[in-house]
Design goal:
By secondary structure, the chain is an alpha/beta fold. It contains ten helices and six strands. Strands 3-2-1-4-5-6 form a six-stranded parallel β-sheet. Helix 1 packs across helix 4 and helix 3 crosses helix 4. The longest helix has 19 residues.
Length: 221
C-alpha cells in the first residue's frame, strides 16, 4: 500500500455539497409531472448510478436513449432551480481543498452528475480552480458502483489508483472507489456513520473542518 499520495478524488453530490435532500425533492416533483408516485424506500433502492441508468428504473416504459436523456435534463433542471438559492460547501471544504492545492497534490472530481450540474456546482461554490481533472456521467459506460469513473479520474491525474484517496458519501460510491483500488474517506451526510462503517474506510468524517492530509496519510495501512 502506498504511503505517498498521488491524488485526491472527490465525489460531488453529498460530498462537496450536502444537497441530496434537494435531489430527492426534484425527483419527486419531476415524477409527479408524469403521474408517477414512489415510496422513499423505492426511490433510494433505484436511485443509483447515472441518470441515464436511473430514468428507466423509474419509468420502465421509456427505452429510447434520446428520450431518456431529455427526461434526465428535465429532472436536473428542476434540481438546479430548487437548490440554486441554497448552494453552499460542506463545512471546512474550501480550507481543506486549498491546503491540498497549495501542497501541489492534484485533485479530481468523479461524479455521476452531468456537465451542467458539475458547472452549476463548481461555479456556484467558486471552487472550479481546485480541480485539475473532472469526470462526469457522459464519460462512463457504467455508473457507480462500477469503478469506471474513478479509474478514468486516476488516469487523468496521471496517478496510480492505489496511491489515491477518494471521498464519498454513499455505499455505491464507496464500492466504486474501493473497486478502483483507492483508499476511501466516508463523509456522513447522506448516510450515517454506522452505515458507512460497514466498509473498510480510511476515516469517516462529518465535514472537512480541521481535516489535514497528514492525518489521512498516517491512517493509511
Amino acid at each position: 500500500m502506498h504511503k505517498t499520495t498521488e491524488g485526491l478524488v472527490f465525489d460531488m453530490d453529498g460530498t462537496l455539497v450536502d444537497n441530496m435532500y434537494f435531489h430527492h425533492r426534484a425527483w419527486m416533483e419531476f415524477l409527479a409531472q408524469y403521474n408517477i408516485q414512489i415510496s422513499d424506500e423505492e426511490f433510494h433502492q433505484k436511485n443509483v448510478g447515472t441518470i441515464k441508468e436511473v430514468i428507466p428504473r423509474f419509468m420502465p416504459h421509456v427505452q429510447d436513449p434520446e428520450w431518456i436523456m431529455e427526461l434526465g435534463m428535465q429532472k436536473e433542471a428542476v434540481y438546479r432551480q430548487l437548490y440554486g438559492p441554497h448552494i453552499k460547501p460542506i463545512k471546512g471544504l474550501e480550507e481543506f481543498l486549498s491546503s491540498i492545492y497549495e501542497a501541489g497534490i492534484p485533485i479530481g472530481l468523479a461524479t455521476a452528475a452531468d456537465a451542467k450540474n458539475i458547472e452549476f456546482t463548481l461555479e456556484g461554490l467558486g471552487m472550479a480552480h481546485f480541480f485539475s481533472a473532472i469526470t462526469g456521467s457522459e464519460e462512463v459506460k457504467k455508473g457507480k458502483p462500477d469503478p469506471d469513473v474513478y479509474l478514468i479520474s486516476a488516469r487523468k491525474l496521471h496517478a496510480d489508483p492505489t496511491a489515491c484517496i477518494a471521498f464519498e458519501d454513499t455505499p455505491s460510491g464507496v464500492k466504486a472507489a474501493l473497486a478502483a483500488g483507492m483508499q476511501v474517506v466516508g463523509i456522513a451526510t447522506t448516510h450515517t456513520r454506522q452505515e458507512l462503517s460497514a466498509f473498510p474506510l480510511l476515516a469517516i468524517i462529518d465535514d472537512y473542518e480541521g481535516l489535514t492530509l497528514q492525518e489521512l496519510i498516517k491512517a493509511k495501512p
